[in-house]
Amino acid sequence: MAQQEQRIGRYALLLALSEENDPIVMDQKNVKSCVGKVGTMDSQKIVAAIETAAKSNGLINGNVYREVHALYHAILEAIQGVTRGHLQLSGILRTVGLRFAVVRGAPYRNKEEGDWIAVALYGTIGAPIKGSEHESAGLGINHI
């Protein structure tokens, strides 16, 4: 069972849901995080934006395949939440405007369980016509 203070998914969701200047006060020990934004009609650009942010903020080592692979699966799981199970955007004329958060930490008391990574997405999805979008969110968590 994940420790109360190390719920990396909850922390990622709070970061993604927060506004730019909202203080997120969490007692997170040995946790790394970053936030960013992406707007696109291409799901590949969502993956690229999150992967770039995670690498440049030191959340994953881009030279270690298992770290990149774990992040990739967490991203895809989060995108499926936003898109209701379909990874396609441009092919069906949908666009997203998302705030994302990536959190890396050890959510279990047993240190042998190692680090996990959580990706949270929150924003809008809809037709590429201003005012035709609605809110959506997604969360993906994977072990590293």
From TrEMBL:
InterPro entries: Regulatory_HutP (IPR015111), Regulatory_HutP_sf (IPR036482)
A Pfam family assignment: HutP
Keyword ATP-binding: no
GO molecular function annotation: RNA binding
The entry's keywords: Activator, Histidine metabolism, RNA-binding, Transcription, Transcription regulation
GO annotation, biological process: L-histidine metabolic process
Binding partners and assembly: Homohexamer.
Family from the record: Belongs to the HutP family.
Function, in words: Antiterminator that binds to cis-acting regulatory sequences on the mRNA in the presence of histidine, thereby suppressing transcription termination and activating the hut operon for histidine utilization.
Protein name (database record): Hut operon positive regulatory protein
Lineage: Bacteria, Bacillati, Bacillota, Bacilli, Bacillales
Annotated gene: hutP
